């Protein structure tokens, strides 16, 4: 069913293209064309506005609810009016520069054909410049259209691009940076739900001081468990449910902020002058620098603005941020600061104290619901980046479910979801003190922003070819700003800041172990691959029989055949009459055009073919077994007949070849794959022994690649073989 929906959607897209071409090139203009275009524009605007509304419930939850925990996370001692004005000025310019300029105006333009995030930036660099590491992931396809690679070949490569292509060290450093960014983003997905819900539930202690921290922690954990159980319904349904809550939050909090400004400090907006930032640091010195560890939380969730791009589109995210989120945050922080100027020692409960008593409980309910929604932004982003890394073979295979038939970017992973749930609950129950979690949160936020700045700089230089003056200006401003934030939050490593590093180290170790094992396997297979000439020799053995039926023999390499084939023929003494050597190839693009999905060609031996199934990291792999066989055989027939397209009648050997295909399909289809393990001999180094043993543990406990194609279990054959390390 999933395959039918996918094929149907692809066919409908093709129909739209043809229809568009007909209107523009084959039909004469008529009086109805202009109204039709106007109607299309109106529908497009309505769709964009609806998406912008839905982004409130998914993308911006973490960012817009940051007022709940920013001031409580600051280690303020004896704050003065000038201190609060300086802090507000820092937050205003952080939101304006990082939120508006960096993410909305620049980062959203660096999407990888609709996908965003640090790993999408890495794949964007890899597919435009030959800097991938795994041979199976190198982008050497001759089949991809020029539209798939918009920047490739348009300009002469920069010196920096040539440096990365020629230096394996530089390529590995880049991969490490991308992996670190992804691990930090996943850490963000763990800490955002914890700090958001905990900060909101802490508001119950103001009217009920007898409520203990343990009760607040327990209630927060229960709410988070419910949130994660809802994830299986998909982003669209969740966002439709959550968006009204965030709409109420973005409307109520700025109104309360305006009320607070009028009643406490009407001249608060004088603090937008950078003069107050300068005087703040001159007056507070090192202590002012340390306060940045709390101030940085005002921009938390901004990375989700970019990473969740695959769930929505650029226009909807820009509209929602510029016209709702940004004004709401500016007014809310202004109102909080105005209140704190008159009540300087209320900063430990800086949000709930500035709420008027007459509306305290309605705001508490909205804030609690909004905090739950806030968790969604980074949870969705985590699903996206995990899926990207899985299909690029940089992370162990986990189950990935597409929760929308029309939006491929909407994904859900049950295993990842429940691991996130356990870790979130553990963070709350073990580190219930909000300031400790805030310190950890600050480390994640600042590190992810800094990594995005570095990768965006490389994109500007190597792909966009932006003038160096503008690149230098961008890098100096944002790297300096975010570097100062990173240096400030690193002072909090002992006070909770070690949590994201521990999570990131664990994830990075898993990713590196998987990557290293996959790299060693590919290297072995390339070194011991079976050439077509060697296959002819093996089949020439009179004891080897060609048995009836069709066999899909899976191979990880395209230039040659897997060494498992030789192992199979020598021991089984047979090969099916129709054997199709199949390779699953993940290109470093989000999506592969439908006409490029399955690529076949005939080998020099009778009944032996090659098939390459190409997928991008945003494509679905759910092809049912029977439908998959039909698609491949149709492609093979078309390929065979194309060799005699100008010959009439069709030669008998060609007709026989086509009939052999049909006959083999009727007899039965089997799918053969290798089940390989490393043999760790005496000559292995201690590093290889440790890393490859860890890879085997991961490989034995992850999902198989074949069920992702919907292959029936009775038709699967696994051939075991030891690879000598």
From TrEMBL:
<feature type="transmembrane region" description="Helical">
    <location>
        <begin position="215"/>
        <end position="233"/>
    </location>
</feature>
<keyword id="KW-0630">Potassium</keyword>
<feature type="transmembrane region" description="Helical">
    <location>
        <begin position="84"/>
        <end position="105"/>
    </location>
</feature>
<keyword id="KW-0472">Membrane</keyword>
<feature type="transmembrane region" description="Helical">
    <location>
        <begin position="440"/>
        <end position="461"/>
    </location>
</feature>
<comment type="function">
    <text>Potassium transporter.</text>
</comment>
<feature type="transmembrane region" description="Helical">
    <location>
        <begin position="359"/>
        <end position="379"/>
    </location>
</feature>
<dbReference type="InterPro" id="IPR053952">
    <property type="entry name" value="K_trans_C"/>
</dbReference>
<keyword id="KW-0813">Transport</keyword>
<comment type="similarity">
    <text>Belongs to the HAK/KUP transporter (TC 2.A.72.3) family.</text>
</comment>
<dbReference type="Pfam" id="PF02705">
    <property type="entry name" value="K_trans"/>
</dbReference>
<keyword id="KW-0633">Potassium transport</keyword>
<feature type="transmembrane region" description="Helical">
    <location>
        <begin position="468"/>
        <end position="486"/>
    </location>
</feature>
<feature type="domain" description="K+ potassium transporter integral membrane">
    <location>
        <begin position="52"/>
        <end position="532"/>
    </location>
</feature>
<feature type="transmembrane region" description="Helical">
    <location>
        <begin position="240"/>
        <end position="262"/>
    </location>
</feature>
<feature type="transmembrane region" description="Helical">
    <location>
        <begin position="51"/>
        <end position="72"/>
    </location>
</feature>
<dbReference type="GO" id="GO:0005886">
    <property type="term" value="C:plasma membrane"/>
</dbReference>
<dbReference type="InterPro" id="IPR003855">
    <property type="entry name" value="K+_transporter"/>
</dbReference>
<feature type="transmembrane region" description="Helical">
    <location>
        <begin position="416"/>
        <end position="434"/>
    </location>
</feature>
<feature type="transmembrane region" description="Helical">
    <location>
        <begin position="173"/>
        <end position="195"/>
    </location>
</feature>
<keyword id="KW-1133">Transmembrane helix</keyword>
<feature type="transmembrane region" description="Helical">
    <location>
        <begin position="319"/>
        <end position="339"/>
    </location>
</feature>
<feature type="transmembrane region" description="Helical">
    <location>
        <begin position="498"/>
        <end position="517"/>
    </location>
</feature>
<dbReference type="InterPro" id="IPR053951">
    <property type="entry name" value="K_trans_N"/>
</dbReference>
<keyword id="KW-0406">Ion transport</keyword>
<keyword id="KW-0812">Transmembrane</keyword>
<dbReference type="Pfam" id="PF22776">
    <property type="entry name" value="K_trans_C"/>
</dbReference>
<protein>
    <recommendedName>
        <fullName>Potassium transporter</fullName>
    </recommendedName>
</protein>
<dbReference type="GO" id="GO:0015079">
    <property type="term" value="F:potassium ion transmembrane transporter activity"/>
</dbReference>
<feature type="domain" description="K+ potassium transporter C-terminal">
    <location>
        <begin position="548"/>
        <end position="723"/>
    </location>
</feature>
């Amino acid at each position: 069913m999933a395959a039918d929906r996918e094929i149907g959607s692809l066919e409908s897209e093709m129909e739209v293209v043809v229809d568009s071409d007909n209107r523009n090139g084959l039909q004469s203009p008529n009086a109805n064309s202009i109204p039709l275009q106007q109607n299309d524009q109106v529908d497009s605007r309505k769709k964009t506005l609806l998406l912008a509304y839905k982004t409130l419930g998914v993308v911006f939850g973490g960012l817009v609810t940051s007022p709940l925990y920013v001031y409580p996370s600051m280690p303020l001692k004896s704050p003065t009016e000038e201190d609060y004005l300086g802090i507000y000025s820092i937050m205003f310019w952080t939101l304006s520069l990082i939120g508006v300029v960096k993410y909305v105006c620049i980062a959203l333009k660096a999407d990888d054909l609709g996908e965003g995030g640090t790993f999408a930036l890495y794949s964007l660099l890899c597919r435009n410049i030959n800097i991938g590491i795994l041979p199976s992931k190198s982008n050497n396809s001759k089949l991809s259209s020029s539209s798939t690679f918009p920047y490739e070949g348009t300009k002469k490569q920069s010196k920096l691009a040539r440096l990365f292509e020629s230096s394996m060290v530089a390529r590995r450093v880049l991969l490490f940076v991308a992996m670190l960014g992804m691990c930090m983003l996943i850490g963000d997905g763990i800490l955002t739900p914890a700090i958001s819900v905990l900060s909101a539930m802490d508001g119950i202690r103001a009217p009920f001081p007898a409520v203990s921290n343990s009760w607040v922690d327990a209630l927060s954990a229960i709410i988070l468990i419910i949130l994660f159980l809802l994830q299986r319904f998909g982003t669209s349904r969740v966002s439709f449910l959550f968006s009204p809550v965030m709409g109420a939050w973005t409307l109520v909090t700025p109104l309360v902020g305006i009320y607070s400004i009028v009643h406490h400090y009407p001249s608060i907006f004088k603090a937008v002058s950078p003069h107050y930032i300068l005087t703040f640091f001159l007056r507070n010195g090192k202590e002012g620098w340390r306060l940045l560890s709390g101030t940085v939380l005002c921009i938390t969730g901004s990375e989700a603005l970019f990473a969740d791009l695959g769930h929505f589109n650029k226009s909807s995210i820009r509209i929602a941020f510029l016209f709702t989120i940004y004004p709401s945050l500016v007014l809310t922080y202004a109102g909080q600061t105005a209140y704190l100027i008159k009540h300087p020692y209320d900063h430990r409960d800086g949000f709930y104290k500035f709420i008027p008593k007459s509306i305290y409980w309605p705001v508490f309910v909205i804030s609690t619901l909004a905090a739950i929604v806030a968790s969604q932004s980074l949870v969705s982003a985590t699903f996206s980046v995990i899926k990207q890394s899985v299909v690029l073979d940089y992370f162990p295979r986990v189950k990935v479910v597409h929760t929308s038939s029309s939006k491929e970017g909407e994904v859900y992973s049950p295993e990842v979801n429940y691991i996130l749930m356990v870790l979130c609950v553990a963070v709350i129950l073990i580190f219930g003190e909000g300031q400790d979690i805030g310190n950890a949160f600050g480390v994640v936020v600042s590190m992810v922003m800094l990594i995005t700045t570095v990768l965006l700089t490389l994109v500007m230089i190597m792909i966009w070819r932006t003038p160096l003056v503008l690149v230098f200006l961008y890098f100096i401003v944002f790297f300096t700003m975010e570097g100062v934030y990173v240096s400030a939050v690193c002072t909090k490593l002992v006070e909770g800041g070690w949590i994201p590093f521990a999570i990131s180290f664990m994830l990075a170790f898993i990713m590196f172990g998987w990557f290293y094992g996959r790299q060693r396997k590919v290297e072995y297979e390339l070194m011991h691959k079976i050439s077509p000439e060697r296959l002819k020799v093996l089949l020439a053995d009179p004891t080897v029989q060609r048995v009836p039926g069709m066999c899909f023999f899976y191979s990880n390499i395209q230039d040659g055949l897997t060494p498992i084939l030789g192992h199979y023929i020598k021991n089984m003494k047979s090969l099916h009459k129709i054997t199709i050597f199949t390779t699953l190839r993940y290109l470093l693009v989000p999506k592969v055009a439908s006409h490029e999905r399955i690529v076949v060609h005939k080998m020099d031996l009778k009944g032996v073919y090659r098939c390459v199934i190409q997928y991008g990291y945003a494509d679905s792999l759910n092809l049912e077994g029977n439908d998959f066989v039909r698609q491949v055989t149709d492609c093979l027939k078309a390929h065979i007949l194309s060799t005699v397209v100008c010959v009439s009648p069709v030669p008998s050997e060609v007709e026989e070849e086509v009939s052999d295909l049909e006959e083999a399909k009727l007899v039965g289809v089997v799918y053969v794959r290798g089940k390989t393990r490393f043999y760790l001999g005496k000559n292995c180094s201690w590093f290889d022994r440790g890393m490859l043993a860890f890879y085997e543990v991961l490989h034995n406990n992850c999902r198989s690649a074949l069920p992702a194609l919907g292959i029936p279990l009775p038709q699967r054959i696994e051939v075991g073989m030891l690879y000598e390390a």
